[in-house]
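DATA SHEET
Item: assembly model
Revision: 1
Owner: S.N.
Input lines:
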Amino acid sequence: MRHLSEKSQKNSSSSVAFWRQWLVFAGLVLTLAAPARAELVIEITRGAVKPIPIAIVPFGWAGPGNAPGDAAGVIRSDLFGSGRFDPLANEDMLERPARGVDIDFDNWRLVAVDYVLVGRLEQIGDELALTYQLFDVYGARQVVADSLVLEPRELRLASHRVADAVFEAITGVKGVFATRVAYISVSGRPPERTYRLIVADADGNNEYVLLESAQPIMSPSWSPDGRQLAYVSFESGRAAVYVQTLRTGSRRAVSDRPGVNNAPAWSPDGRQLALTLSDAEGNLDVHVLTLLGNRLVRLTERRSIDTEPTWSADGRHVYFTSDRGGAPQVYRIAADGSEDAPERVTFEGNYNARPRVSPDGRYLAVVHDDRGRFRVAVQDLESGALQVLSDGALDESPAFAPNSAQLIYATRREGRGVLETVSTDGLISGRVKSVGNDVREPVWSPYAR
Amino acid sequence: MRQVLDNAIALIGSVALHGVLVALLLINFDWGDEPPLPVQTTIKARIVSDETTVSRPAPPAEPSAAEIAERQRQEAAARERRQREEAERLQREAEAREAEAREVAEREAQAQADREAREAAERQAREDAEREAREEAERQAREEAERKAREEAERQAREEAERKAREEAERRAREEAERRAAEARQAELDAQLKDALDAELARQGAIDQGLQEKYIEVIRQRVRRAWRVPAGAAKDIVCTVRVRQLRSGDVVSVVVSDCPGGEALSRSLSIAVNRASPLPPPDDPSLFEPNLVLRFNTSESE
């Protein structure tokens, strides 16, 4: 996939590079893991009070036979699923232009949409050209436009890319439709249980199983480049930390020490893992493992439980959960081990655990004991203000989307583990409808690079 | 002859009596303006007395034998004659007495009548005098009364005039004072009214200003409701939007300036204004403002 028009894509060359790589990777994955049916469908349970009305006109098709896919349908689904848009139904459209020059803006003012997206697909040899234009209806001005060249099987991903571009142009926030989510799925009953590490598109499509085991799989963590996942697997009979490359499926154990090897977290530069290790006395402490050279630095040395490490956005600090104050709270310590004593970060309530820092570094997501109910909350790292976002009773494992505007977390509904999403401002909630199995420990991929 | 004498005497006496009566009348009465008693009465009486005198008897003659007889006869005749004469005399005397009595009575009656007439005249005169005096007195009294009344009336009139003049003067003075007071009061009222009017004008101006502010705020709220703040907009970002509208409220142009929130935020405001078009009119058409400057804060959206 490559851009024909560069005018609205500043990083198009890197995008091209990524998509080339992504295609290679995807092709490999498709050969390695059989495509599973979509297990996840995100259903918005609470949308924006005033979603933005937009018309996504079915794309024109210039080629033999039927179009290879419904790009506009994917884009519409993405934008609607964000909870922030109110796409116009196709049957309410007074015209269906495929080019900006064919738009009669009065027809769109009449149906009261703020924006109209038009586009078309063309068959060019074995490739497709996807061209789109987004217009501000009232201003009758083009907001963003681009043209992509892609292979037919890339159409869905390319459509997510268009949705991302539209989302960002209108909301000012980068879209995450072209990202992925990794999570753990558990099926069967003990002792016949199956644990799977699954990766899927953010909309639940293109799901595939990265690892399947009869022993527990835990704590998946994306590498900053989105090419690797670290996780804990008990497949050897005890917990060990593995790093697996998605593209190749190859993996290696990076921490298989006696005792506990748990909760790996990639540093922003991708060179280190923070993790929890136990010493000979079973005391849990936070360590930082430098992958290249396998060098280990111990950050905490207390007899308290210090675990669930995560990195600050700048990579200089590690946040972790500790009960050294008597109850679980989040602390912060220098990632290089230069500080003897960590600094306490959370103060509201008597239980704040499982910290995650937003990619933009502004928020700290935690599991917060909200009057006996464990809920996802975010603390503004600058002001210290804590806001509870979720409304369940056993909400756990919050993870930020790469745009920092949304979180995904696990909870239990009707006795099953399910995934839910919430916007960082708490205004929009969604439920990821899974089919059948328990799902837990979701983690959002970084932007593709 | 005697009868003539008698008649003469009687006549004389009668005349004398009448003269006395006349003298008495003349002496005793101031006739004034009154006319004298009528003389006719005296003349008539003389005629009556003349007849009486004729019937008076003559004195008797000496009687002899023959003569006595004669004389007796004569005497008888004489006696008879005397008797007859006597009778005649008596008759005459009686008649004379009667006449005299009648005359006296007449005289007395005359006198009485005269007296009565005199008295009547006197009474009349007295009465007249009294009446005149009374009338004079009455007249004088009346005149006096009239004079007094006139004077009183004049006095009263004068006093009335004076009073009226005084009252008029007082009234004028009072009216003047009242007029002045009224003028002063009016001036005061005018001043108060002017103050009130000024205050009212100022208040009206303020109200107008308030109404215009309210009108613009109504527009602003309408735009705000139409505004979808972009998800990526930071909190508490304030943007200024300059809107030009037609009388119809239709938006002609929107310029978002001073909006440090990026293109998406600026466009969202421009769209919001257009969505809100036509903008609501003011309650008072004079408050219409074609050029609006609206400010929005990203934290005020619903």
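QC remark: Confidence is low (pLDDT under 50) at residues 36-54 of chain B.
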